[in-house]
Amino acid sequence: MLPWSIELAGRFEEEVFESAALRGNPLGDPHQRPLWVYLPPGYDDQPQRRYPTVYQIQGLTGQLDMWRNRSPFRKNFPELADELFAAGEAPPCIVVWVDCWTKLGGSQFLDSPGTGDYHTYLCDEVVPWVDARYRTLAARDHRGIAGKSSGGYGAMVTPMLRPDLWGGLATHAGDALFEVCYLPAFRDTVRLLRDHYDGSFDTFWADFRSRPAFSKEGDEHALNDWCMAACYSADPDGTVRLPFEPDTGRLVPDVWERWLAWDPVRMAADHAQDLRSMKAIYIDAGKRDEYFLDLGAEAFRRELERVGVTDVFFELFDATHMGIEYRYPKSLKYLAERLSP
Question: Which DSSP state fits 177?
Answer without folding.
Answer: -
